[in-house]
Amino acid sequence: MCGLVTIVLPPSQFVQVPILHAMADALAHRGPDGFGYAAVEPASGKVQQWVNEQPEVSLGGVLFGHRRLSIIDLTRCGHQPMVSDDGNHVLAYNGEIYNFVELRAELAQLGHRFHGRSDTEVLLKAYEEWGTAAFNRFNGMFAFTLWDGRRKVLLAVRDRFGLKPLYVAQVDEAYIFASEIKSLLRYPGAFRGFNRDKVSAYLTHCLVDDDRDTLF
What we know:
The chain has helices at 17-25, 100-109, 119-130, 181-184, 196-205; strands at 3-8, 15-16, 34-40, 47-50, 58-59, 62-68, 82-83, 89-97, 140-148, 153-158, 167-171, 174-178. It is of the alpha+beta class. The chain has a domain at 3-95 and 141-191: Glutamine Phosphoribosylpyrophosphate, subunit 1, domain 1 (4-Layer Sandwich). Helix 2 packs across helix 3.
């Protein structure tokens, strides 16, 4: 399955690194095979990655956490968050692109070189080549966050039918994304009580996913 966490912080706001780790740990059941983290400084474009070693106590900018379920590429070449060769793009991805082999061949003909066999790397290279138009080429189920260092924007994307989950919450001026709500709730201030109308609808009709709202 894989699980992802992404935090977009306003300038001069920081998050304690253990909070990011705790949010990713809440998704450990989705990705027991590996984990990783990354932090981007939007102004400078600097990208910091780590696995076990502890970085600075608190970080700002755009933060990523990932729990990996290794299926297509079992090597370190499929490790996430994945950073492009030029350091401009950072990707945290959950899903499967069924036509990634065909896309990989097309991208190779266009001059792209690959380090591994994962569809994650194909997604990243496809964005580098075609921008957001690449998403129309994907046949699969997916949810991902992608930092574009050239445009200085974060893209949060789901497949057309929403088969892969991606939840978002706004806490003050920070935006947080995660594969499951339990991960979001580990961010300080994210829990603000329950959505009484949704709780009532669930208890009455067992419906929880028929619109954009959640139980929180």
